[in-house]
Design the sequence.
């Protein structure tokens, strides 16, 4: 069945936000090979952009990174999955403006995929189970459909939205790409599983600006194998930021600031000290 585009504009630009994990517990390795997770995930005001326009066929261009523009790209797979599920005869011309570092623990690819699904659902409305489709693309993709902070459990697909106080922070990426597959394999080898997060204690500390009692179960195994990540965590603390933590499977690390001005000043200091790092002051959405 063919659908006419709902929006005749040449293209629409969509923002695909990054996320950080304000705590990530890996509780166990499940019988199905996936991991039982417990994490507090929050979207940020930094991310990628996608230009999407109706077209006769599906095409993808990538600017800002050396990434495939076919089935090897999660954006292309998300678009193909939606168009097929919706029974759309046409396609879309998509340009991905990649601004986040690759394989960095910020969920960039998952956010790009979720944003693609939402954009095409606006362009070609149809009765499609977006959360179900999102989960086939990756465990983090449903979170980005939600668009707000949530506690994630299961393999990441069970989402419980909750209010999180505004948080200013600085992200640093020392230029190391970490495979999530490797990070979890290292954790499994050590059987370094962790208990559930104390979400109430984390929220109380965020509200009061105190050191945050969170953990990232993947941080130890990953940082042990990547000295730049250890250096990044130390640099954040030396810059006057508190509660340094690796986000997701790395290699991006975060440090919390008192406010936006503090985050901006600390980011400038870090960018001068480490000119080859990706450094970004940001805040939660």
Sequence:
């Amino acid at each position: 069945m063919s659908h006419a585009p709902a929006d005749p504009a040449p293209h629409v630009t969509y923002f695909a936000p990054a996320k950080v994990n304000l705590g990530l517990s890996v509780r166990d390795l499940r019988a199905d090979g996936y991991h039982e997770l417990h994490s507090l995930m929050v979207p940020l005001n930094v991310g990628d952009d996608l230009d999407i326009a109706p077209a006769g066929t599906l095409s993808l261009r990538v600017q800002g990174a050396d990434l495939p523009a076919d089935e090897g790209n999660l954006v292309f797979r998300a678009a193909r999955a939606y168009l097929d599920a919706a029974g759309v005869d046409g396609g879309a011309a998509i340009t991905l403006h990649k601004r986040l570092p690759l394989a960095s623990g910020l969920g960039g690819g998952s956010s790009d995929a979720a944003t693609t699904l939402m954009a095409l659902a606006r362009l070609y409305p149809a009765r499609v189970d977006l959360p179900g489709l999102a989960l086939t693309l990756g465990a983090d993709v449903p979170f980005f459909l939600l668009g707000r902070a949530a506690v994630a459990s299961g393999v990441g697909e069970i989402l419980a939205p909750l209010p999180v106080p505004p948080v200013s922070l600085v992200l640093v990426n020392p230029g190391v790409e970490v495979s999530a597959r490797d990070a979890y394999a290292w954790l499994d080898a050590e059987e370094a599983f962790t208990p559930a997060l104390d979400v109430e204690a984390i929220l109380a500390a965020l509200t009061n600006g105190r050191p945050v009692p969170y953990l990232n179960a993947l941080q130890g195994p990953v940082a042990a194998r990547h000295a730049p990540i250890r250096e990044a965590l130390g640099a954040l603390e030396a810059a006057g930021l508190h509660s340094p933590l690796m986000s997701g499977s790395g290699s991006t690390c975060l440090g919390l600031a008192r406010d936006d001005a503090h985050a901006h000043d600390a980011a400038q200091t870090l960018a001068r000290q480490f000119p080859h790092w990706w450094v970004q002051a940001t805040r939660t959405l």
